[in-house]
Amino acid sequence: MSRKKSTVVVIPCDSYDEEKVYLGLKSGLDELGGFKAIVKPEEKILVKPNLLSAAVPEKAVTTHPSVLRAVFRLLSEAGCNNVKTGDSPGHGSCEGAMKLLGLNDETMYGAKLTPMSESVHIDFPEGMTCKEFDFCKEVVESDAIINVCKMKTHALERITGAVKNVYGFICGLKKAAGHVKFPNDTVFARMLADIHRCTHPRLHIMDGIIAMEGNGPGAGTPTPMNVLLVSTDPVALDTVYCYLINLDPEAVPTNSQGCRMGIGTDIEEEIDIILGGRHITKDELFKTYGNGAFDVGREKPKNTFLMKYSGFMTRIARRPAIDKDKCVKCGICVDHCPVPGKAVEFKNGKTSPPVYDYKKCIRCYCCQEMCPKHAIRPVRGLFRRK
């Protein structure tokens, strides 16, 4: 018996003009039956954007406000009047991030901003990798979750999209503990898949009108991709993102592990791509909207004899490194390092930039994500131990 395909709708959109985004998203959702096929008007709905940190829309760090307002408008038109929106940023507050985006209760078609600052412990015995979570209260209280992610690169997982965006369900500083408990890209991806298995987001929308390449998810370069992506399958949506940038989907741990753990599929034959009301192939998609020069980590995972030796890997693996010319010695990287005893710290006060202890570093890239001056980026090479 053939397996039912996952549908990913690709919506061309070359600007953040609010009416253009609204009409494009409406037509794309119509391919899936509209919001009425996904949520019920009486349900408590949480719209979860990517609010990594407070940043103006032009930096492409966060989900663009035009995309969010289109989602709120469409939910309002579907009769949904119990809609909340928020995220648990890695740095700063949800309110601060929303303020920079120009979003408040008066501009969100009835949706209400929620701080996502109160934690609720949840046991999840069905977890395949993670059996407990500290979720934001709003996640636990919602009936339906709509995941509105951003098309960006990511130092740990190569890309961040629909699968990765749910890490914002974890409340505040609890996220740092997760990086220590799940310290490599594969096990971290499996933990993310368990979050999906626990919370079951109903719909995934990706803002790829202006994406981020390079040193993402917070310090990369904005680049136009001119698309929105919509799907009920987070892995299929992220896989189509990979098609657009000519990246092997299996090289992305959130895809490969997400597929293995049953939250979606990254198998080409099981994904139906819809563009302009018709079915297209991934090659047709790439020819029209692809960017093969998109700056993203393209190295494939390896499983060689040498990689079994952690000492060797510690010396050659990618690690965060500080550009001394950009560093302002603010100490945010030190504050956000989740490793007990700190893998990055000031050695002589703040007279010089912080220094890494690569024996301790788990390559979670929290420091790189949070650096406000974009002074940290992943590098590869032979490092001294300290």
Query: How many discrete domains?
Result: 2
Low-pLDDT residue spans: 304-315, 382-386
Element pattern in H and E: EHEHEHEEEHEEHHHEEHHEEHHEHEEHE
Oligomeric state of shown chains: single chain
Structural class by secondary-structure content: alpha/beta
Q: What is the straight-line distance between the termini?
A: 57 Å
Q: Would you report the number of β strands?
A: 16
CATH topology of the largest domain: Rossmann fold
Into which percentage range does the β-strand content fall?
A: 15-25%
The percentage helix is 25-40%
What does this structure look like?
The structure is a single chain. It is globular and about 60 Å long. Mean pLDDT is 92; it is low at 304-315 and 382-386. The chain is built from 13 helices and 16 strands. The chain has helices at residues 18-30, 65-77, 94-100, 137-141, 162-165, 174-181, 185-199, 234-244, 253-260, 282-289, 310-316, 332-336, 366-370, and strands at 6-12, 45-49, 83-85, 112-113, 119-123, 132-136, 144-154, 158-160, 203-213, 221-231, 271-275, 278-280, 319-322, 344-345, 355-356, 376-379. It is of the alpha/beta class and 386 residues long. α1 packs across α2 (65-77), α7 packs across α9 and α8 runs antiparallel to α9. The longest helix is centred in the middle third of the chain and has 15 residues, at 185-199. It has two domains: 6-289, LarA, N-terminal domain (Rossmann fold), CATH 3.40.50; 306-379, Alpha-Beta Plaits. The strands form four sheets. Strands 1, 2, 3, 4, 7, 8, 9, 10, 11 and 12 form a ten-stranded mixed sheet that branches.
